[in-house]
Amino acid sequence: MPRVYIRHTRDRTIPLALQDRMIKEANAATPDNQFKIFSVEASHAPTAKKYREITEILHRLAK
């Protein structure tokens, strides 16, 4: 199962350093199934404009 992580670079609930640590640890646990990582300049609760950006990423992945 492919894995995707969309980092929210302005998230103060789950800081970027913690997001990166979670990605790194998960990738280390499953080295044959690494995350495909995207970054969005958004807070933990994105605006409608940022939700559209996230939706576009997910739409591209679904193709």
What does this structure look like?
There is one protein chain. The protein contains 2 helices and 2 strands; from the N terminus they run E-H-E-H. The protein has helices spanning 16-29, 48-62, and strands spanning 3-8, 35-40. It has a two-stranded parallel ribbon. The longest helix has 15 residues, at 48-62. The radius of gyration is 12 Å and the shape is flat. 2% of the residues are buried.
Summed up, the helix count is: 2
Largest sheet: 2 strands, parallel
Strand proportion, as a percent range, falls in 15-25%
The count of strands amounts to: 2
Helix-strand makeup class: alpha+beta
The unreliable regions are: none
The value of Rg in angstroms is: 12 Å
Helix content: 40-55%
What's the average pLDDT?
96
Strand order of the largest sheet: 1-2
Q: Order of SSEs, N→C? A: EHEH
Broad shape: flat
Terminus-to-terminus distance: 15 Å
Keywords summarizing the entry:
single chain; 63 residues; alpha+beta; 2 strands; flat
Strand and helix layout:
Elements: E1 3-8, H1 16-29, E2 35-40, H2 48-62
Parallel strand pairs: 1-2
Describe, in short, the structure shown.
The chain is an alpha+beta fold. Helices cover 46% and strands 19% of the residues. α1 (16-29) links the parallel β1 (3-8) and β2 (35-40).
